[in-house]
Write a structure and sequence with these properties.
The protein has 336 residues and is of the alpha/beta class. It has a single domain, classed as TIM Barrel (Alpha-Beta Barrel), CATH 3.20.20.100. Helices cover 36% and strands 13% of the residues. It is built from 12 helices and 10 strands. The protein has an 8-stranded parallel beta barrel, surrounded by 6 helices. Helix 1 crosses helix 2, helix 1 runs parallel beside helix 11 and helix 5 runs parallel beside helix 6. The termini are far apart.
Length: 336
């Protein structure tokens, strides 16, 4: 497993990071989840990403069970705050000072740790002054409850404003967690150049486009039984946009590129993501331990420019590149 620095910090994370968004306490039972985390550790993954909202706090509990007994100093544990949790009352969501402090205290208790390595704003909160949000994060860092602060799906302008405040308040804003894959490239035009300027890395989710970039979904064919596309609890709504025949036909063009490189389509797709130096890590999940054996090997692959451009050419016309899509992710008002 290779490691990369997170932003302009001295903090390193595993290039392949384990995320438990749609698996723990949802798609798979606790025993399977624990086995998968143990497999991740065996394969060299030391970085684990979760959020309080996943399975309405239950995913954090399962991750804690899976990591129990592991030396804390050998792990990098991330979580997030923003979306409604618990009883989902008016102060159980957003990035107010109250919710951020309730959020970090709840997450630490559920995860069974004294601190998290990275605490992330899961979206931008238009209803809370940014100064209030960033001051709360600064205080959490000073209290030792989080070592670093990150965000998720912030626009280039929001990153710039947040970064300026973090410098004034004496802490590091080191990361952004956007969706990014060879089929979803909307951050390339504005978010990545701004992040490079500011010293902010990307920790990207859905680097395999919900599994479409493994090549297992075929044009004109029913989706595989038991796949994510058939399970409403495991992100079926997110994958629908990629299940058009024109997209699936383009993805099939990746097979000869992967074969020429001696790797799988999934490994090719992950290596494509990691080809960008601003990407610190690709988040992967798994419902079975053996799924990780294929994806982890992507950390060993250095994709040459020719293969990278071949992927771009194969997906030209179906990959989403519109930077305006980055402005559509955070709700303009807090979800009820």
């Amino acid at each position: 497993m290779n490691y990369r620095y997170l932003g302009d910090s001295g903090f390193k994370i595993s290039e392949i990071t384990y995320g438990n968004w749609v698996t723990h306490a949802s798609q798979v039972g606790d025993d399977a989840a624990i086995s998968t985390v143990h497999k991740a550790l065996d394969l060299g993954i030391t970085t684990f990403d979760t959020a309080d909202t996943y399975a309405n706090t239950a995913a954090e509990v399962v991750l804690a069970k899976a990591l129990k007994g592991q030396p804390r100093e050998q792990l990098e544990i991330f979580t997030k705050v923003y979306w409604p949790i618990g009883r989902k009352g008016p102060n159980d969501q957003g990035l107010s000072r109250k919710h951020i402090f309730d959020g970090i205290n709840g997450s630490l208790k559920r995860l069974g740790v004294d601190y998290v390595d990275l605490y992330q704003a899961h979206r931008y909160d238009y209803e809370t002054p940014l100064e209030e949000t960033m001051q709360a994060f600064a205080d959490i860092v000073r209290q030792g409850k989080a070592l670093y602060i990150g965000v998720s799906e912030w626009t280039a302008e929001q990153l710039r404003e947040g970064h300026a405040l973090s410098k004034q308040l004496g802490f590091q804003l080191v990361s952004n967690q956007p969706q990014y894959s060879a089929l979803w490239r909307v951050i390339e035009d504005r978010v990545i150049p701004t992040s490079e300027e500011l010293g902010i890395s990307q920790i990207v989710w859905s680097p395999l486009a919900q599994g479409v970039l493994t090549g297992k979904y075929l044009p004109g064919q029913p989706v595989p039984e038991g796949s994510r596309a058939t399970d409403e609890k495991s992100g079926a709504n997110f994958i629908k946009r990629f299940l058009r025949d024109d997209v699936l036909e383009a993805v099939q063009k990746l097979t000869p590129i992967a074969e020429e490189a001696g790797i799988t389509v999934a490994q090719l797709s992950l290596a494509w993501v990691l080809h960008n130096p601003n990407i610190a890590a690709a988040l992967v999940g798994a419902s079975r331990p053996e799924q990780l054996e294929d994806t982890v090997k992507a950390s060993e692959i250095t994709l040459d420019d020719a293969a990278y451009e071949a992927v771009n050419a194969a997906l030209s016309g179906v990959a989403e590149i519109d930077p305006e899509k980055t402005y559509e992710v955070s709700p303009k008002s807090r979800p009820a």
